[in-house]
Specification:
126 residues, single chain, seven-stranded mixed β-sheet
């Protein structure tokens, strides 16, 4: 059974950086997309970025391009979200998610992911 545990959230000021971690266990993650999503109060959960475990190629939502970086450690199975130049609009609960890739579907839709962590709160003050 896949288990995902996020950590690293907190309260920071605008312009600061933060690194979130996702500890993934329960299986090997070859052929998996690992994604980051976030949900602000009153809003839907939205795609932040994702990485394909086999190739380590990440992709990002426009909101994070140039500021966010996703990476993974194949030896320890964590995944990271490095967030720089944070803005108050980045305030949200951030979730780690995983989905098996069978060659079709999308990696940026929350409906495609069936494994989720509990989330970690990120608050950016102005």
């Amino acid at each position: 059974q896949v288990q995902l545990v996020e950590s690293g959230g907190g309260l920071v000021q605008a312009g600061d950086s933060l690194r979130l971690s996702c500890a993934a266990s329960g299986r090997t993650f070859s052929n998996y997309f690992m994604g980051w999503f976030r949900q602000a109060p009153g809003k839907e959960r939205e795609f932040v970025g994702a990485i394909y475990w086999n190739t380590a190629n990440p992709d990002y939502a426009d909101s994070g391009k140039g500021r966010f970086t996703i990476s993974r450690d194949t030896a320890k199975n964590p995944m990271y979200l490095q967030m720089n130049s944070l803005k108050p609009d980045d305030t949200a609960v951030y979730y780690c998610a995983a989905r098996r890739w069978y060659g079709s579907g999308s990696y940026n839709s929350r409906n495609e992911y069936n494994n989720w962590g509990q989330g970690t709160q990120v608050t950016v003050s102005s």
